Amino acid sequence: xxxxxxxxxxTRVRNANQAGHDTVQIPxxxxxxxxxxxxxxxxxxxxxxVAGEGTQKSLVAGLKYVGRRTRVMSGLAxxxxxxxxxxxxxxxxxxxxxxxxxxxxxxxxxxxTDTQARQKHxxxxxxxKVW
Length: 131
What we know:
Elements: H1 5-19, E1 23-27, H2 30-41, E2 45-51, E3 58-63, E4 65-66, E5 70-71, E6 76-78, E7 87-88, E8 102-107, E9 110-113, H3 114-120, E10 124-130
Antiparallel strand pairs: 1-3, 2-3, 4-5, 6-10, 7-10, 8-9, 8-10
């Protein structure tokens, strides 16, 4: 039984990115779809599509590369876990890798980046860091 489906998704994306795959398939959930859409908006992934229907739904994320398989995403780390939830206020949000990365938060207004949360003066659960 898997207890942390978001960590599983991040691991699938990280492994596919390091292996140089074009796409990665992930079991569907709304929170995963929202996290992947934020990664598309920030330019770390090329696209996200929902495949299948009903209980067979899955997400297909297109990985993004520059030139001859130079990775756009160089790192991905989970912050909050089921055993240790990490909540940050908007004043506690720090810049990731000198502005080259983002922290993805789950706020009361939806899933968003640290920059968007700072602008809206929102805090929330820190899901992961991507750089």
